[in-house]
Amino acid sequence: MPKTLRQPTSSSPTSYGCLLLRFSLAVGLAMAPTGCERSAAPPVSAADLERGAYLVNQVTLCTTCHAERDWSLYSGPPVPGSEGRGGIVGVFGSSDFAPRIDAEALAPLSVKELASRLGARKGVGGRVIHLSPFLSGLEQLTPEDARVIAAYLKSPTPVVESSPPDPSRPVAELHDPIDTRARGEYLMRIGRCAACHGPDLSGGVEIEIPLGRSLPSANITIHPTAGIGRMNRAEFIDYFKSLDSPDMLRVVVPEGELNTAMPWPWLAGMAREDLGSIYDYLATQPAVDRAVAIH
Q1: Which distant-in-sequence residues (6+ apart) come within 8 Å of 246 by Cβ?
Q2: pLDDT confidence of 208, banded at 50, 70, 90?
Q3: Which candidate, 18, 16, 49, 24, places its Cα nearest to that of 109?
Q4: Could you tell me the residue ranges of all domains in the chain?
Q5: Percentage, residues of the chain above pLDDT 90
Q6: What's the sign of the alpha-carbon dihedral 4, 257, 239, 20?
Q7: Are the C-beta atoms of 233 and 240 separated by less than 8 Å?
């Protein structure tokens, strides 16, 4: 098993695609929507909320980023009760504040209005919001996924414990559910894996987190020695699922040891089918011989 995925105290960076909200929502969140935006939207079902919870908590990690993080614990989980209520970003050396995205803060927007802003890159009045490449990704959400994410974020009593979606209703509905590689690519794009692991996924991006120093991200290409190529599909899935436990959110990082920005406890909760799709996509990408020193 490659060192890049085996060392729990090493720093493998996280996916922070949902930081896009700090730009798309901050511009005109409190401004009154136009009449055309008030058109009827499909009703929100319990299945929509469950699916939205899965996407928010296991894929895009919106409420994990928009929270106060406890970096004395493994992967820096949110302080209980702060999920979605804003906090210091604290990754890539950033001291920026991620705004509130809980139901109260989002009350001025309807589900349809919020969904349209998730990936529009535009504020009220059509003003373009210029984004860093590290913060883009949500613009590739399917309309249905944007809708259920918006519905979940606006839910006054959101589903806390999400569960994998019904396999008959794939996460990426615009893709043929049989085309697992396309679904894997979609999941990696909305999860912003490349933001931390680099455009070619070979790692080496310096990630700075609180209570620690800057560390390079891991090579997640299928190179047999520099990347994850020694793991087959089943082993890849099993490794993630081995970390799928609430206990992972309570692991204290000993003083002087390195933490990680990789959101293992949340990604580990992804459905096996989705983790397998990610592996299938990675298997189609070039294997990059780039050794990254993970300490």
Answers
A1: none
A2: confident
A3: 24
A4: 3-282
A5: 44
A6: negative
A7: no
